[in-house]
Design goal:
The protein is of the alpha/beta class and 614 residues long. The chain folds into three domains: 260 residues, Rossmann fold (3-Layer(aba) Sandwich); 186 residues, ANL, N-terminal domain (Rossmann fold, 3-Layer(aba) Sandwich); 133 residues, GMP Synthetase, Chain A, domain 3 (2-Layer Sandwich), CATH 3.30.300. The protein is 41% helix and 20% strand. The strands form five sheets. The protein has an eight-stranded mixed sheet, sandwiched between helices. It has an eight-stranded mixed sheet with strand order 7-6-5-3-4-8-9-18, with helices on both faces. The longest helix has 22 residues.
């Protein structure tokens, strides 16, 4: 069973000597760098939005008060406390307070409906709930009769009733009284937390049946942070911009990395503000889902199309040169003198402006939660923006594989984390073993037995390892399908090809299981297609009118034809549907991490798909 390859400069002591819990990590960070900035966040002041911040000492004081308040409310070690809120700094402080009280965090996406919220809270046995606002409180009140175990709701911005619902200030006051009476209590609780204690319950956003609660231990999270620290990828001089949903493991793992490495984090979960915030915050790194990079790529491409003329020619020349130059460099070859000079000039004219859109200081982005198209990664790399692709599951505390800034291969998700193991099963499935693998599914022995066998996590993904231990994911095992002609098709590979070509696409879902040919469901990006409409005689039309036009369909057909030219005959997309809306979290067709729910999209358009084959 091959262990993960370890770089010569990796500090294994960071893993072997790591602290036993997230709470201990947090208090250690507060002690070591009390005056350093910990969190930065937007606030409204005088009708304008400005950024405020907390030092580690200030964060520590708030967290300890909240933690003591939870203990005063009767919360005991490993009991569950839920958070139903969008990404914001209060979410992080609440999570850290739960950790310091010895309890475990149940994460609830703010978009989760009342029925599923009730299921998650009852299945997890959550005793207390942090609810962001009145909308979240309303979900709890709707089914309060079923939430008999929830003794108290603590709201960030909602209306407190002084009884079942209290505010953060009320919790802090309870905590201050508790600390005054028992000043050492929280420290004693933190000292008693071990690596095998439950830290987090994250419920998977399944498309069928009820979601499963993934049990992640304290030692899993501290391992994740320690691995990043041991690789020397990040340190106190870095600045993270964090927008990812904190109810998702990708967001959570970046918090453990922060505690281990000590960098400050700017927090704002508003997806529509990401690009604007990058220009203001000027981070050195950010984690993101591939959709963010696809959207930025499409936006820049469509802007250049609209510019036209000399600017478009210079832009196209720059990327043709950049891709050639970059390809030689990654192959270890030296570009010639003429290419070197041309690249230097075009870097100042074009690439520097692209980098500036992302703040101008980014050392690298980390891409996860879904596959990143290789061509898009190479496009960004040619502009001097490194995207390190990683891979993992909620069941592996997010991070299981990741590329290193000094040792990466575009098109792979990197090697397995040091201190873990990986093997490829006979059918190509990726199996993982290590400290980051879940304890199991909460209250679900059967599902746990199916996923874990002798400690090996069966990921459900198909992949292959190269000679250096770098993993390439080829598809999701359950997404592979066979046409009625007996040919196997990997839909994600086709989808990635289309997204690399078409700058107007939002989602492209390939369909064809047991069908006699492959078809697709196409959704177009609202902003990009609105711009396209302005230049194609459809300005002022609604989204539905634009995407339903003959001109738009002909445009999509052109990109489908280009994609088909790259595919095997049996993989080619013969027919397609263009949706009259863009899938979103709100429509239930995207997960909160912006990954398409394939089965939901297919089910919602079953009649239209059937009509393609009639």
């Amino acid at each position: 069973m091959p262990a993960a390859p370890v770089r010569d400069d990796f500090d294994m002591s960071a893993v072997t000597d790591r602290l036993p819990s997230i709470a201990a990590q947090f208090l250690d960070r507060v002690r070591r760098t009390p005056s350093n900035e910990a969190y930065r966040f937007p606030v409204s002041m005088g009708g304008e939005e400005v950024w405020s911040s907390l030092t580690w000492k200030q964060a520590g004081e708030r967290v300890l008060q909240y933690a003591a308040g939870l203990v005063a409310l009767g919360v005991e070690p490993e009991q569950r406390v839920a958070i139903a809120a969008a990404t914001r700094y209060e979410w992080i402080l609440a999570d850290l307070a739960i950790m310091c009280s010895g309890a475990a965090t149940t994460t609830v996406y703010p978009s989760t409906n009342a029925e599923d919220t009730t299921y998650i809270l009852t299945d997890s046995g959550s005793q207390v709930v942090f609810a962001e606002d009145d909308d979240q409180i309303a979900k709890l009140r709707e089914n309060r009769a079923q939430l008999s175990e929830v003794s108290k709701v603590i709201t960030f911005d909602g209306t407190a009733d002084g009884d079942w619902v209290i505010g953060l200030d009320d919790l802090a006051s309870l905590g201050a009284e508790r600390i005054a009476a028992k000043p050492e209590e929280i420290y004693d609780i933190v000292e008693a937390i071990g690596p095998d204690d439950l830290a987090t319950l994250i419920y998977t956003s399944g498309t069928t049946g009820k979601p499963k609660g993934v049990r992640l231990l304290q030692g899993s999270w501290t391992y994740e942070g320690a691995v990043i620290q041991g690789q020397g990828i990040l340190d106190e001089s870095d600045l993270q911009f964090l927008w990812l949903p904190m109810a998702h493991s990708f967001g959570k793992v970046l918090l453990s990395a922060q505690l281990a490495c000590g960098f400050p984090t700017a927090v704002d979960g508003r997806v529509d503000k990401i690009i604007d915030n990058l220009a203001i915050v000027k981070p050195t790194f950010m984690g993101a889902a591939p959709r963010i990079f696809e959207k930025a790529y499409g936006r820049i491409q469509t802007m250049q199309e609209a510019e036209g003329g000399a600017k478009k020619k210079i832009f196209d020349r720059a990327f043709a040169t950049g891709l050639k130059y970059d390809g030689l460099k990654r192959e270890g070859k030296k570009p010639g003198f003429v290419l070197e000079r041309e690249h230097a000039v075009l870097d100042k004219l074009v690439f520097a402006k692209v980098r500036e859109r992302f703040g101008g200081r980014v050392r690298f982005f980390i891409s996860g939660s879904a596959a990143l198209n290789r061509e898009i990664a190479e496009w960004f790399h040619a502009a001097g923006i490194l995207i390190l692709e990683g891979y993992g599951l909620t069941e592996t505390s997010a991070g299981a594989f990741v590329n290193h800034p000094d040792d990466y291969k575009i098109g792979t998700v990197g090697p397995a984390m040091p201190g873990s193991e990986v093997q490829i099963a006979s059918d190509g499935e990726v199996l993982i073993k290590g400290p980051h693998v879940m304890q199991g599914y909460h209250n679900n022995v059967e599902a746990t037995g199916e996923a874990l066998e002798d400690g090996w996590m069966h990921t459900g993904d198909i992949g292959e390892l190269d000679e250096d231990g770098f993993l390439r994911i080829t598809d999701r095992k359950k997404d592979l399908f066979k046409t009625s002609g007996g040919k196997y098709v990997a839909p994600s590979a086709i989808e990635a090809q289309f997204k690399a070509i078409c700058p107007y696409v939002s989602q492209f879902v390939v369909h064809g299981n047991e069908r006699n040919f492959v078809s697709a469901i196409v959704a177009l990006d609202t902003d990009a297609i609105t711009e396209w409409a302005q230049s194609n005689g459809l300005g002022g039309k609604s989204y539905a009118e634009i995407v339903g036009s003959d001109a738009c369909r002909a445009m999509v057909q052109g990109y489908v034809d280009q994609t088909n030219a790259r595919l095997n005959r049996w993989e080619t997309v013969k027919k397609f549907i263009v949706l009259d809306h863009e899938p979103s979290v709100e429509t239930g067709e995207l997960t909160p991490s912006m990954k398409v729910k394939r089965k939901v999209v297919e089910s919602n358009n079953q009649a239209e798909l059937d009509a393609l084959y009639s």
